[in-house]
Amino acid sequence: MKSRIGFIGLGIMGRHMSRHLIKAGYALSVYDLNTSAVEELVGQGATACANCREVAAASDVVISMVPDSPDVEKVALGENGLIEAARSGLIYIDMSTIAPAVSQKVAATLGAKGVRCLDAPVSGGETGALNASLSIMVGGDEGLFREMLPVFEVMGKTITYCGKNGAGQTVKACNQIQVAMNFIGLAEALVLGTKAGVDPAVILKVLQGGYAQTRVMDVRGPKIIKGEFEPGFKSKLHFKDLNIIMDTARDLKVPLPASTVAHELFSAMLSSGRGELDHSAVIQVLEGMAGVEARSRQ
Ligand code: NAD
Q1: What's the domain range around 110?
Q2: Is residue 61 located within the same domain as residue 110?
């Protein structure tokens, strides 16, 4: 018989991921602070729960997809949290992007109550969640990783074991360095070329056809030059990730000069009221500095 799955956090990512689990035939119990998100999933066959404890009580495997480290601590260890229904045999998979140290703390605390934990953050954005093509990077016990592969395969395509608890989050931090660089590089190229008088659609077409091509450019480039910045991935969440990156680098005494610049540019996005926009809107900060808007006339 298939495991009963609980899903907590039905936002931009979680709503698609949980829908795939229902379609794959899993009985799904769901919870979100936002009741309309819960109603949407109930309409697709999920069962609503009143809190995270109820989700854990009704499930063999609980998955969470919430914004940040304090949210995961609340879900797992807080009042009415998973810990209140913790029991030997329960499995908890956190797929949010959070600090590796918090993943390790949650795994150790719930582990002491018999709960087996994995951290399994994802990359691929809303499109990856929608198409069940996420890249999933997993930290924790390798045997548990293998046991959970059929569940991961419902939501993702590239599923990689990374090491002990927290290792999935460490790899996700590495991923977010590269994604931030891709957005900033694209933004600087479009701003420079536009200020020099070239249509940004021309710049994009040329870059997409050569060595400079990136997936970021293919997915978001056409929207950037039309001025479309609806999220996708909210800037405030990428700033959260850059804070995780800088904290981790400080702890490990690893200088990250380019990530420091990315951190400051994303800090400027939040202080200028752009936290809810897609992270591609980092171009607006650079456009403000250059006094030009990289919008296509085509
Ligand atoms: P979101 O803000 O759209 O959704 C988060 C959901 O969690 C919301 O519905 C919110 O109500 C719910 N929530 C928050 N605290 C809760 C709690 N204590 N109990 C129950 N529900 C709670 O965010 P998202 O874009 O879906 O991102 C979720 C996670 O996935 C984040 O860690 C993010 O960094 C990561 N991520 C996002 C993307 C993306 O493209 N959006 C890509 C990869 C990874």
Answers
A1: 5-165
A2: yes
